[in-house]
């Protein structure tokens, strides 16, 4: 008896990951959400999303919920930096990079300025 052929499930593309990230950030009451279209500008990702949480606890909860949602959507190899401090959590979801900051840390690093002139989504 021949085993059944495996059917691969299509993984979400960059636009679908971006939509999931934006929805999750909004659901968790993230503040000042900015999405930057990096396509054709760099090879690190297609999109960058920057958001703020009100406190370390809020930043940590936003990051944790987003990581869970990405994994539930089938995104593999999600990489995370910045936990447990939660001043700035970076989540690398392959084609979408997410930065979740406390407001004062976001103001200090001002990474949006680095991408000034790049179209926002």
TrEMBL record:
This is Ribosomal silencing factor RsfS. Functions as a ribosomal silencing factor. Interacts with ribosomal protein uL14 (rplN), blocking formation of intersubunit bridge B8. Prevents association of the 30S and 50S ribosomal subunits and the formation of functional ribosomes, thus repressing translation. It comes from Xanthobacter flavus. Belongs to the Iojap/RsfS family. Keywords: Cytoplasm, Repressor, Translation regulation. It holds the Pfam family RsfS. It is found in: Cytoplasm. InterPro entries: Iojap/RsfS/C7orf30 (IPR004394), NT_sf (IPR043519). The lineage of its organism: Bacteria, Pseudomonadati, Pseudomonadota, Alphaproteobacteria, Hyphomicrobiales. NCBIfam families: rsfS_iojap_ybeB.
